[in-house]
Structure formats: structure tokens, C-alpha cells
Amino acid sequence: MPQDAFPAIPTDPRSGHRDSGGARRREQGAPAFAALDLGTNNCRLLVAAPAAGGFRVVDSFSRIVRLGEGLVVTGQLAEPAMERALAALRACADKLARRPVRALQAVATEACRRATNGPAFLARVERETGLRLRTISAREEAELAMESCAPLMERGDRRALLFDIGGGSTEIAWIRIPPQGGAPELIGYISVPVGVVTLSERCGPSCFTEAGFHAVVDEVAEKLAGFDAVHRIAQEISAGGVRLMGTSGTVTTLAGVAMALPRYRRPLVDGQTLDAEVADQALGDLFALGRDGLAAHPCVGPDRVEFVLPGCAVYAAIRRVWPVPRLTVADRGLREGMLLRLMRADRMGPRRYMPRGTGFHGQA
Q: Which homologous superfamily does the CATH classification assign to the domain defined by 4-137+334-348?
């Protein structure tokens, strides 16, 4: 993704837009900003410069680290998992040392929220890499995902139901969309303590069987029922104007399979809206592949084979509780939301984007 124009923030994601040469030249002097997300399963870095209508990605990094491995059983981050995360974070620090940025926001999510040694690990990260990470709340995760996905909402949408199936938890955001335009409003959220890593450790092999798969669907659906009862989301869906949006590896994989892509291509997937029945068929196709078939599939691969069906079970539970007829797929999330916030705050004036305790590093 280096030197790539980032489509769909906030322009049409299906256009495959690239900046013209003139626009690219005008942006060469723009300052770069960086967002780092240390999750339960992945460590990801995105570096971008402001561009007309959004931003242009200039560098990126992503590595599976499985930081939350064993956390469900012990309540702590394991030493091998911390070493893997530290190796990835050192690589991120090296990239940032070679490419000075105006501001960096670095966050940790569910694994560090839940682990009793999470704060000690982040202190170690700062000592060994110089990176200062802030553990964010589930609400802030939902707000950042909402910000990055807001451009995918369309005229006629009254509400949006946005879900993010992560490694250690699943975030659900219930969003009001102003009829006369303006920023979407988060009116409810829930963080369900099930994700692809935790489920794969607890019941991953059983997800390859119909009985085990449906047991996970039943479990997750039960956890979502109370949130639905509070916000009456199913009733709102019946009235129309509700957009179901998913941002996670699970839904992007479903989209890649539904679109029969020979290999995963983000510009073709991000912002794509699928009929729910098409996504359901893709889920069935993935289940039918089995372990070896998933490992060989170009939109899955051996590194993610253990996580796909647990994620699909969470998606199936969401579909059961909230039967929205179409699914909008977003290949974006925390990092994109952080970058948009950084750039907007930078436009407000010098140093206003560096509030105390946020994990922002100083100007280059």
C-alpha cells in the first residue's frame, strides 16, 4: 500500500480513485500522520498525508502477533505473545524513525484492557521501543470505527448498525444519521467479550462441525439480545432505513469469497454492499471448504485458517438477531478513524491535537 491513494476516505470507495499527478504534487509537502493499533491478534501501522477529500497512504505495516493467546485461561498476556508483539512494534518504531511524522496516535485494545499485566506490558513497550501506547475503551473503539465508516453511509439511511469482529471482543455501534446531513451520532454501543482469537482457543475445532458452529451462534446471539431489547433495533429494521456495516477480517473475507476474487484486493472490497443472502452463501462456501480448503483459499490463507469460522459464527449471530437485507463491507477501522481525527485536530491549530495522556508523540 505505500504511496497509494487511500480510496473512500471519504470519496466513493468503488471508484478505485488515484490522485492525479497535479494533486499528488500539491500534496508532496503535506505533513505525515501515523496511527498504530495493537489488537488482540494484529499489530497494524498506517502512515498517511492529508489529501483532497481525505488522505493518501504513504506507508503501512501489518503483522499477526496473537497478543491475546492464552488470555482467556490465565487472565494475563503470555511471554511468547508479548515477545511477538514487541518484535512487531520494533518494526513499527523503525519505520517511524525513517519517516518523521507530525503526530502519532498509538492505541491498544481488548487484550491490554483485559490482561492484569496489560499496564506493565505497555510500560515495557515504551522502555524497549520508545512507543507510548494508550489503552482505549470499547466506546472509543466504536467511535473511531464510526468515524472511519461514516463516508459509506448514504442518503436515505436513518440508522446504521456497525459491527467490528475483533480478536478478543466484538464491538457493536448503534448510530443515528441526521436527516439533514452532519456527523453521525453514536446512540448506543456494546462490547461483547468474544472474538476470533478467544473463540478459536475455546472452541475453534468444534466450529468446523455444524453442531459446534451453531452452538457459538446461539451463544453470541443470546449476548446480543439484551442490547437489541434496550434499543429496539429489530423494530427499527422493520421500519427500513437501517444500514448494516461490518469492519473486520471476517466480513472482508466474506466479500472476497462472494465476489470470487482470485486474490484479495482492498479497493474492490472496501465499501462494497452485498445482498445478505449472497454473504450467507459465501459463509456456507467457507464452511464447506474445511481446514485445508481454507488454508489454500487466496482470501484466507494458512495464517488465518483458525479464525475464519469463529468470526463467521459471530457474523451469523448478528444476522440472526438483526436480519438487515444488505451488508456494507468496510476495510477500514481504528487506524483510519485516528488519522482523520489527527488531521482534523491539526487543522484547528498547533498542538491542539496533543491532549494529555493520549499517546500522541510530538511534531517532527
A: ATPase, nucleotide binding domain (3.30.420.40)
